[in-house]
Amino acid sequence: MAPSAQTHHRSHSLLLFQKLLNLRDSASPLTLILDTLEQGARPLLQEFINRGKLARSKILFVSFTTARKPRNVDIFIKARGRSVTALITEIASHCAPVNSQTPKDTATNSQKCLIVVDSLNPLASKQPHVLPLFFGSIINPFASLVAVYHNDVPLVLPRTVNEYEPHPLTLLSHMATAVFKVSSLYQAVETKRAQMRSLREPEWGLHEGREGVLVGLRTGHQPEGLVVEMEMRRRSGRAVAERFILSPSRGGAGASLSLLSDHPLFAPAKDAEGGAEGEMADSTFNLGLTEKQRNDREGIVLPYFDAQTEVGGGEGGRILYDMGREDDFDEEEDEI
Questions:
Q1: Strand 226-233 versus strand 75-78 pairing type
Q2: What is the model's pLDDT at position 112?
Q3: Cβ atoms of residues 64 and 118 within 8 Å
Q4: 141 in a domain, yes or no?
Q5: Could you say which residues of the chain have pLDDT below 70?
Q6: Domain membership flag for residue 213
Q7: Where is the composition biased (Acidic residues) (predicted)?
Q8: What share of the chain is helix, strand, coil (3-state, %, to 5)?
Q9: 16 in a structural domain
Q10: Could you tell me if 254 and 304 lie in one domain?
Q11: pLDDT of res. 101
């Protein structure tokens, strides 16, 4: 890839990710975030909330598992134990257009609304058939929904669900216009190191197969941030996929964003001769060649090079062979 094309691809990916985080021009009415027990989606949710606050949007937080009101949230709604109809009515009352007497006034006076749902697992487990109704009732041109689904939490479906019906996660992934899958940066680095050494990739969380307590993320000298795999579905049906690193800021400022390929831990290393080793940086051998090695290879004179040039002469190449004393001369083979 040429440098200009690579720079254009990097800029385009970052701008698209920024557009989704800022919910600019209704880029994604329904954003689905998939997280795990090892890496939660809280840093990414907080970034959505902070950017929505800067854009002067009304922030609604629908809580199924969160006990305290998060920072920069305007309205905190406790959803556990409530019916879907009552929940839709309360959310719609807060996101209704204000001071709207004509369609023109609706477009100018309505305030943008960001609805954040901290967990879709309770709805998917108890009433999976109401998910399309829930989304369709609260999403409008002035409201965007960001919802979290815990990927590795066991989902027990009710007995009334037909076995031929699609799984709730399949249904959510189909309806979402943007899907973010978050994972630990530390785990991504360890997985990459194992791949570079042709070792078995490590497992974490439930995949470790340990009995007893679940061993979560270990603290210590680990890279801060999380890996975000973005999948943006355009209206044409084409999907745009990219991997980013989101590093939350402790001082209250905006989080730093970068492509996974631009991060120092994933950038290809360079050897002492100035050549890039690429993905073989930690290997015991190198399949690439440096500039000095290329020059030395071009200066090597191949065996019988002079004989080949003298005899070549457009004859298609010949083999020169000097018989020794131990060789048995055969006239028939010589004629062939």
A1: unpaired
A2: 87
A3: yes
A4: yes
A5: 1-3, 97-110, 205-206, 210-223, 250-254, 265, 267-287, 302-321, 327-336
A6: no
A7: 325-336
A8: 35, 20, 45
A9: yes
A10: no
A11: 47
Q: Residue 196 in contact with residue 280, Cβ under 8 Å?
A: yes
Closest CA to 26 of 114, 133, 134: 114
Q: Which residues pair with 147 in a beta bridge?
A: 32, 117
Q: What is the Cα–Cα distance from 137 to 95, expressed in whole angstroms?
A: 11
List the beta strands (DSSP E) in the chain.
30-35, 58-63, 75-78, 113-117, 143-150, 178-184, 226-233, 239-247, 256-259, 269-270, 276-278
- Is residue 313 left, alpha or beta, with left meaning phi > 0 and alpha meaning psi from -120 to 50? left
Same domain, 110 and 185: yes
Q: Which two tokens stand for residue 120?
A: 């879709």
Which tokens go with 31?
């954003």
Q: How far apart are CA 145 and CA 138, in angstroms?
A: 8
Contacts of 190 (CB under 8 A, 6+ apart): 202
Of 78, 166, 91, 173, nearest to 122 by C-alpha is 78
177 part of a folded domain: yes
Which one-letter DSSP state was computed for residue 168? H
Single-letter residue type at 248: P
Structural domain boundaries, residue 252: 3-98+106-156+166-206+218-267
Boundary-marking domain end, from 251, 267, 283 = 267
143 phi and psi angles, rounded to 5 deg: -135, 135
3-class SS string, 280-309: CCCCCCCCCCCHHHHHHHHCCCCCCHHHHH
Q: How far apart, in whole angstroms, are the C-alpha atoms of residue 184 and residue 39?
A: 6
CA distances from 58 to 8, 89, 143 (A): 34, 17, 9
Please state the pTM of the whole predicted model. 0.72
192 and 48, same structural domain?
yes
Name, in order, each residue with C-beta under 8 angstroms of 2's C-beta and a sequence gap of 6 or more: none
Regarding whether 117 and 259 lie in a shared domain, the answer is yes
